[in-house]
Amino acid sequence: MTAAESAPSASPGLSLRERRRAVAVREIVSTAEVHITEHGPHSLSLRAVARSLGMTVQALYHYFPSRDSLVTVLVTKAYDDLADAVQAAVDGTPDDPAVPRMVVAAEGYRRWAVTHPERFQLIYGVPLRNYAAPAGGSTTLALRRMSAIFQRELLGGFTTAQLDAADAPALSPALREHLERLPVSGFGALPPPGVSLLLSAWGHMHGLVMLEVMGHTAFIGAHQGEIFSVSMRNMLEDIHRRIPAAGSTGGMPDQ
């Protein structure tokens, strides 16, 4: 589910009542995002949002029956907005071998995070008390959409045979079995060593971004972006060195 689906637009094909409801939902979501930006994710409550809108909590319940239902929409939208920013960064950069698309995607991820630190913390910071995202719901689908972008830019040029033969740390039989059971819509299309490399890359990238968002690398000052880009290039080169050249594994290329 995309952000547009989780917070419906006022489509002309809807009835007047449905259009009014869609407009109200968008206004509630927008107000909640402003509240998070100004006060942080943990201050979010239906009462606070209702107060900002000049409506009663009871009226707000007609649109969102609980805080969790609103949080789910906000998290989904944040993931989708982040994925949009990453994809826009990749699409807006001319193909240039000297500028790896994975690095461009990572830089798009960082820019969105440091521009929207509170919304980034909503999806990746300390979990909101008593909130649990619906299993397999809109937040999961939105996260998978973003993960697919990085999977494509990091590993899209390699065959399954190459990834399976990658020089990755040995995985225990139990871990390999678990990774092999992952849904194809997630990481399941990759062989276990490929999943290991992708998660390592994501952890490296995300860790640096989170340190910056939380202010832990402020001592680097205006050079944080450069440090990040250099780190991403080094990470990319290291991962690609671990993957054997095409034709050296004896496997058939992916279709």
Shape: globular
Order of helices and strands: HHHHHHHHHHHHH
The beta-strand count equals: 0
Structural class determined from secondary elements: mainly alpha
Note the main sheet.
none
Percent helix range:
55-70%
Radius of gyration: 21 Å
- Compute the average pLDDT: 89
Keywords:
single chain; 255 residues; mainly alpha; disordered N terminus
What does this structure look like?
The protein has helices at residues 3-6, 16-39, 46-53, 57-60, 67-91, 101-115, 117-124, 138-155, 160-164, 173-180, 184-188, 192-213, 224-241. By secondary structure, the chain is an all-alpha fold.
Set out the fold topology.
Elements: H1 3-6, H2 16-39, H3 46-53, H4 57-60, H5 67-91, H6 101-115, H7 117-124, H8 138-155, H9 160-164, H10 173-180, H11 184-188, H12 192-213, H13 224-241
Helix pairs in contact: 2-3, 2-7, 5-6, 5-7, 5-8, 6-7, 6-8, 6-12, 6-13, 12-13
Short description:
The protein is an all-alpha fold. About 65% of the residues lie in helices and about 0% in strands. The chain is built from 13 helices and no strands.
